[in-house]
Write a structure and sequence with these properties.
This protein has 828 residues and is an alpha/beta fold. The chain has a domain of 101 residues. Helices cover 51% and strands 8% of the residues. Helix 8 crosses helix 23. The longest helix is centred in the first third of the chain and has 38 residues.
């Protein structure tokens, strides 16, 4: 990096490190940086305690109701798992050994666990180490018990042969084929956020009393009360006892450490920690420090309960923590610096838990140790007023000043967001670490209302996962959904139901040989048949997933924190909960790849007649080797992301056809199954099964990501990308969910106060177009190239990927190249 080049704050920090200079922030945040330096960059280690104690507990409870078995397993874990307090840490409660760690969920992947642990240390995407003795316990005790009992195995048996052929390779482990990809077998639930407020206000003792009252009200002669409602109540009471027991074990440890501590400052801190852990989360929090600790215990114990896709989110921390902050500030019990230090301690603790994916598909979907424990700031209050407060600004400041990719930060934006708030959001984006991602109230809230939410619930939504949102106490749908590779459908249209990767195997529909299409309408109709066939099998998948999941998963803790579950005495993983809104989604992967390919065929083959479809097919078979002139013609055809009606109208049609399908058939599933464009990192492995495409993309390279333009195809600036995104949406349908949008800016184009204002105006344009999501990388292209060439100098370089930020050097070369290939905008 040249000193003359305009650098982001992140790039300046890294330049300090390369040159051996001291960053002044290190002096301000000694505690947080000291905690961080002991763990940053470590290769994570698998901690087997969660998997082991769940296995041992489940062995003793066979035949009992599943929710009660789950609660007893959590209680068994709370009794036996080792508890830790990190040196110098203020917020305590970890669910694995010191350092970076991941935990096991054998109920998900016990059928492949024995073989997978041999590959995890060396795999390219997100590797993990494991102690040989722990590996032996997995092979001899944990994996054998779960073999034949996992959801994955049940789902394989349930799918029709044609659906299974699009879903799995027919190998011994039925690995993903990355065509119509189910995601339900490597996570227990889609993204989720708890109602933390009830814990802070009532404590688990209050939830326990509520359940005891309901227990006393049951009809002792009712078969439903005794066989369905009573086990639920018993499970919630058990899990309340479990988390309190776990917290008290931490309190005892803190007291023991304090008794042996010679440093008077640390001794006082440990004594205070002990008092806090005796209070929360059993009882209501009385101050800010107790509220944060109570939330943290709840969050971490919920990770023990189940593997939630994209990790349990933190919800609207600037809202539910604000009363405690305000009270402490007014009484001079705490300062803003104290608050920021507490948050920083939480972030470091959070960064040590690594979401471990055992399956190859799960690992490929979530590169760079993906995480989405989103903290939501801003937005509106439940009565529709602007929600920004002093805590909002502290959280934004923490993100600017503490260079860590935890937590994920999401900022809600609406038409009455203040200029100060927008400017501070813009300044945080300019820091260059990819935070915050932005979510648009003007798009999200009307859609939630259209699906049955009240204004109060819709205004209070939290960002959860990559780009989605949840309404605590109103959302009730947890089943993971399909990721669909529509670029594969395009390839099958070219090759009459076949894909080059799979040779003579007929995978899709026979829609005709390339030379038989006489005009674009015929070809497009054939593609839409392949697309509809994929949707058909995705919905068959989802039908079976919904039907089977309640037999395999239960959530007594998640249910305890959900008002509708407590009111109806129904487990969160049951297919339907009275009063709930069931919001699911399916993914359109490769959106711009397909648009651009169809536009190229329409323009070059059928309108300009500069090539036949057979010639395009032959060039694709040869990966364009020897066909560079034809490839350049295809590359220069109209492209999505340039505010070009020609390409955008094709995109709108693709979107509309998918919406029409889900409008007709999601009602049969009994849910809102909405169309979403959020790939995580799946566009990379999905691209590895798709050969060359008619837009000039080379074989086996990444597909386009989310609703972004194809890599390097957007030529007219980021505003044109916004307009293409707007033009391809069908606003008359409410079966819509998130569209993830990546924008890469050079630091020079947002330099200084004028750059901040330009970025604010761009955000306002995005907001007024009612687009769901946007996120930014503010970084120089040569920084990324230098990091790829000299990773040892750039270990701390953060980049925005797909709803989360990760360390660039921890990504695969394919994903690094994908980020480098994104268009860098020099002006907005």
């Amino acid at each position: 990096m040249s000193k003359e080049k305009v650098l982001s704050a992140q790039e300046k920090r890294i330049l300090f490190e390369i040159n051996g200079e001291k960053n002044t922030l290190y002096n301000k945040k000694n505690r947080a940086f000291d905690l961080l330096k002991h763990v940053q960059g470590e290769k994570p280690v698998i901690d087997i305690e969660r998997g082991l104690y769940f296995t041992r507990s489940f062995k003793t409870t066979e035949g009992q109701p599943l929710i009660l078995r789950w609660a007893k397993a959590l209680k068994y874990y709370a009794e036996h798992a080792k508890v830790y307090i990190d040196d110098n840490q203020l917020i305590i409660g970890r669910i694995g050994r010191p350092g970076r760690y991941g935990i096991l969920y054998p109920e998900l992947d016990g059928d492949i666990l024995g073989d997978a642990i041999k590959q995890l240390p060396e795999r390219e995407t997100s590797p993990f180490n494991i102690d040989p003795n722990d590996a032996k316990i997995i092979s001899e005790e944990i994996a054998p018990y779960w073999k034949g009992k996992t959801f994955h195995e049940d789902l394989i048996k349930a799918l029709t042969p044609k659906t299974a052929a699009l879903t799995y390779n027919q190998d011994k482990d039925f690995t993903s084929r990355f065509i119509v990809n189910e995601t339900a077998s490597f996570r227990s639930s889609i993204q989720w956020v708890h109602d933390y407020k009830i814990v802070l206000q009532k404590g688990f003792s209050g939830i326990r009393r509520e359940m005891e009252k309901k227990l006393n009200e049951l009809d002792e002669f009712s078969p439903v009360d005794q066989t369905e409602k009573k086990p639920f109540i018993d499970a919630v009471i058990t899990v309340c006892d479990a988390i309190v027991l776990w917290a008290h074990r931490h309190a005892k440890l803190a007291g023991q450490l304090a008794a042996k501590e010679y440093n008077t400052v640390r001794k006082a801190e440990l004594e205070k920690i002990a008092k806090i852990c005796w209070q929360v989360p059993e009882y209501p929090a009385r101050n800010f420090r107790e509220a944060v600790q109570s939330q943290w215990f709840t969050q971490m114990f919920s990770r023990v309960e189940q593997k939630t896709g994209t990790v349990i989110s933190n919800g609207r921390m600037d809202q539910y923590l604000y009363p405690f902050y305000k009270n402490d500030i007014e009484k001079s019990l705490i300062t803003d610096d104290d608050v920021q230090e507490i948050f920083d301690c939480m972030w470091v603790a959070m960064s040590q838990y690594i979401d471990l994916y055992i399956s190859s598909a799960g690992g490929a979907f979530n590169e760079g140790y993906a995480h989405w424990e989103a903290v939501t700031v801003g937005g509106q209050t439940s009565d529709g007023n602007d929600a920004v407060n002093d805590l909002t600004y502290i959280l934004l400041k923490s993100k600017r000043e503490f260079p860590l990719n935890y937590p994920d930060l999401a900022a809600r934006i609406h038409t009455r967001s203040s200029q100060r708030y927008l400017a501070e959001v813009a300044e945080t984006i300019k820091e260059g670490s990819g935070f915050p991602k932005l979510i648009n109230d003007e798009e999200v809230i009307p859609l939630l209302l259209s699906k049955g939410a009240d204004f109060e619930d819709a205004y209070d939504y939290s960002v959860s996962g990559c780009a989605e949102c949840r309404m605590p106490n109103r959302d009730t749908y947890t089943s993971p959904n399909a990721y669909i590779n529509f670029a594969a459908a395009l390839e099958m249209t070219i090759y009459n139901g076949h894909m080059l990767k799979y040779g003579d195997e007929l995978i899709g529909l026979k829609t005709g040989d390339a030379e038989t299409f006489t005009d674009f309408d015929e070809f497009f109709a054939a593609y839409l048949r392949q697309q509809k066939n994929f949707l058909k099998h995705a919905f068959i998948q989802q039908h079976e997933i919904i039907r089977l999941r309640a037999k395999h998963f239960a959530s007594p803790l998640g249910s305890a924190l959900h008002k509708l579950c407590r009111d109806t005495l129904t487990d969160l993983h049951q297919p339907h909960i009275k009063g709930g809104i069931d919001l699911g989604y399916f993914e359109f992967i490769g959106y711009a790849t397909v648009i651009d390919s169809l536009a190229a065929i329409k323009k070059i083959v059928f309108e300009e007649k500069k090539a036949t479809l057979n010639q395009v097919k032959k060039a694709m078979q040869h990966n364009f080797t020897g066909y560079e002139l034809l490839r350049q013609r295809l590359v220069n055809a109209p492209k999505y992301g340039n505010n070009d009606h020609y390409a955008d109208e094709i995109g709108r049609t693709l979107d509309r056809e998918a919406l029409l399908f889900t409008r007709q058939y999601s009602k049969e599933l009994g849910i809102n199954l909405d169309l979403r464009y959020v790939p995580f990192t799946s566009h990379v492995p999905f691209g590895k099964v798709v050969s060359a495409t008619p837009n000039g993309r080379l074989a086996w390279t990444p597909l386009s990501d989310g609703s972004s333009a194809s890599q390097g195809a957007d030529l007219y600036g980021p505003t044109a990308v916004l307009l293409s995104n707007f033009a391809t949406k069908n606003y008359q349908y409410h079966e819509r969910a998130a569209r993830l949008l990546n924008v890469k800016l050079s630091p020079a184009c947002v330099q200084g106060e004028s750059g901040t204002q330009k970025l604010v105006q761009f955000i306002e344009a995005w907001r007024d177009l009612k687009l769901w999501h946007i996120q930014f990388n503010v970084i120089n292209q040569d920084t990324l190239i230098a990091a790829q060439r000299n990773p040892e100098n750039y270990r701390n370089l953060l980049v925005r990927i797909a709803g989360y930020s990760a360390y660039f050097t921890e990504l695969s070369v394919d994903l690094q190249n994908d980020i480098i290939a994104r268009t860098q905008n020099e002006a907005i």
